[in-house]
Amino acid sequence: MRNNFPIFGQDDTTIYNPDELLSLFLDCTADGFAIVDMENRFLRINHMYTEIFGYTEEDLIGRTFHEFSNPEVVQEIISEVKNGKAFTNMITKRFHKDGSLLDIAVSYSPFRNKQGEIIAIIAIYRDITKLVSMENELHRTRELYELITENTTDMILVINKDKLILYASPSHEKVISLKPEQIVGKSLGEFLTPEEDAVLDLKLKEILETGEPQILRKKFITCDLESVYTEYSFSPIYNEKKEIDSFVSVGRNITDRVKHDASIRNLDRLSVTGQLAAGVAHEIRNPLTALKGFSKLLQTCLDKEKQEGYLAIIMNELDRIDMIVNEFMSLAKPQAIQYVKEDLKSILDSTINIIHPQGMMHNVQIIPTYPDERIMLSCNPHQLKQVFLNFMKNAIESMPNGGNVVIDLQKKVKGKVLISISDEGTGIEPDRLRYLGSPFYTTKDKGIGLGLTVSNKIIQEHDGTMKIVSEIGQGTNVIVELECLEDDIT
Fold it and tell me: How far apart are CA 461 and CA 343, in angstroms?
């Protein structure tokens, strides 16, 4: 059996020059090669050695490696290689000819002749400066990320597509009194109510479809029975195939912000309540006058049939007072924020009952134009009443000489409803219109500038939008778009 094969030809008579074969090998390799004799003199280097270190054959051949800068351990290694030991893939630092420092992976091997005698040393060099630099940068980046996640007050979570928590930052313990080891390995759904878990599923689905970050809010009750409001921003994490395979969430304690928003809303609510008090008092005074008159008639009237008629009138007036007071108290009393199913027309009618006395005092007629069907919302009715009350009150105050406020409802496609509240007032200048909604900016002499700010915030929390259209002398139209429940429209 033949055990040798030709390299430069196709027949067994091919003869090649070993020096040419060695030169071909050294020139084709991607590593730097150096051959040093037993007296430590350079015998041969290849082109890649020059590329790595900058030294040419003229610089090195015939000179010993002691004449160049080398780590002290090299002398010991060379001695052991001369005794037959090999060293592979040693990570060292060497100097370039220009003085710059390089990271080098080097291997040393004894070079033997046919008789097995060691006649030289082969050193193989690979420049790993860029690789080491990248590893160092990656290490520094990892340390930086760890420093951030270990010390940030934001709560950082990493979850996979199945909502399994892969990482939780230590800040969770500071904010919600849960240690990372109490969180990692569990499903995020375990820390959410069924309603919140359903919302999270929708948010993650939206991220998978659009790649856009999504916001989720959550209320926690700590071990100290304190309420902590948090806001989580979920963003996608992509793998090497540019596919979303997990999510990162950055949560923030927004308890102070929630309390601040609540204070502003209460301030606005109390301001509106105070301004409506005179109108409500005037509205109650009318039935009280009737009550006094018919009460006196009852004292002097002996006709039983007339007495029954007087009593019926008195009961009607009492019911009217009761309705006015209840509507007013529902506005004045702070309410827990809770979303329920409610008919939009019922909310608007209740608001009109509250603002009606104010309209009568200003000779303003409120005209609702509703469709026949019910329009159900998932909302907080008390907050929406506060919104519509602000708009109606602004409309009334814009018409000092009286007029009409028209409230129109229009159902749109895809579960949307438009609420339009238009007046016949003086209108708003274009240069002032763009500032409306800014905190404490108002066009009124006695306003506090929070009504539109609070209203816009409430509408946004109901996933709605608000737009104000106005023209000097032509009045103002406030248009609100809200989501309605399609299945509950009958």
Answer: 18
Query: Do residues 113 and 161 both lie within one domain?
Result: no
CB-CB contact of 481 with 418 (8 Å):
yes
Which range of residues forms the domain containing residue 318? 258-488
Extract the tokens encoding 52: 């790595």
Q: What is the DSSP string of 320-347?
A: HHHHHHHHHHHHHS------EEEEHHHH
Considering the domain architecture, whether residues 58 and 158 belong to the same structural domain is answered as no
Residues 290 and 247 in one domain: no
Q: Is residue 427 part of a domain?
A: yes
Cα–Cα dist 122/234, whole Å: 56
287: pLDDT strictly greater than 70: no
Residue 54 belongs to domain with CATH number = 3.30.450.20
Q: CB-based contacts of 217: which residues, under 8 Å, 6+ apart?
A: 229, 230, 231, 232, 254
Residues 319 and 439 placed together within one structural domain of the fold: yes
DSSP letter (8 states) at residue 440:
T
- φ, ψ at 187 (rounded to 5°): -80, 140
What distance in Å separates the CA atoms of residue 13 and residue 187, rounded to the nearest whole number? 73
Q: Hey, what are 461's tokens?
A: 């929390």
Mean pLDDT, residues 104-129 taken together: 90
Q: Decide: 200 and 163 in contact? Cβ < 8 Å.
A: yes
Angle at which helices 381-397 and 451-461 cross, to 10°: 140
* Beta bridge mates, 167: 158
Condensed to tens digits (0 to 9), the pLDDT of residues 428-468 reads 776 665 545 444 334 444 443 445 666 777 787 788 888 88
Output the pLDDT for position 449. Answer: 41
Residue 20 sits at the vertex; the CA angle it makes with 42 and 97, to the nearest 5 degrees, is: 30
Total length of the chain: 490
Helix extents (H) in 113-230: 129-151, 171-176, 194-210
Distance CA 99, CA 54 (A): 10
Query: How many whole angstroms separate alpha carbon 419 and alpha carbon 489?
Result: 16
Looking at mean pLDDT, say which of 123-127, 215-219, 298-302, 374-378 comes out highest: 123-127
Q: Tell if the pTM clears 0.85, that is, is over it.
A: no
